[in-house]
Amino acid sequence: MSSGVAARRDAKKLVRSPSGLRMVPEHRAFGSPFGLEEPQWVPDKECPRCMQCDAKFDFITRKHHCRRCGKCFCDRCCSQKVPLRRMCFVDPVRQCADCALVSHREAEFYDKQLKVLLSGATFLVSFGDSKKPETMVCRLSNNQRCLVLDGDSHHEIEIAHVCTVQILTEGFTPGGSTRATGMLLQYTVPGAEAATQLRLMAGEDASGSKRQAAAWLAAMHKATKLLYESRDQ
Q1: What predicted TM-score, i.e. pTM, was given to this entire model?
Q2: What is the pLDDT of residue 169?
């Protein structure tokens, strides 16, 4: 990919919406697959009362719209201003209590797991029915749209084309914990009738590399949940 094309894919612009300032992709087609669209606000005339506590709106009790769900609330039920990175807001925005809780949980993904995915990790990678794995570094692209695999060969898999993700684990005991050791991923290729399978397994050579791979897989598990939520929106 040329540097010019890559620059266009990563270009951002600042826009103002009724909910606040947002830093969004220059081209909509290059938006993050983990992103959420801004909701339609419930019209003022359709919500004479708070949709949480049922308080009646008047000159003293003002109504506010949650920037995540778009519903109407009084100030007491919608007082928190929380970062909402999945909608690309520059500053924290007003959210109801339920949405604020979800946004707080998602902040961990952007603060921790996303950085792990962007850094990448080393795996033994097999495509389709191939019996001979190739050692490759797998990472998430900077615009979060592709899984990039680099080794003797180079591959890019669009996140939007991923059908299923299964994290492989070992070490389960009743009451104990498991360790992620690999991942099975199915994705579609334009023009192909059947999905292609990708298998990533953590190597056995270096403990540091295995720990990094396990952390990457755990982060990918979290990312998969967000991806399915975005698709179901």
Answers
A1: 0.77
A2: 86
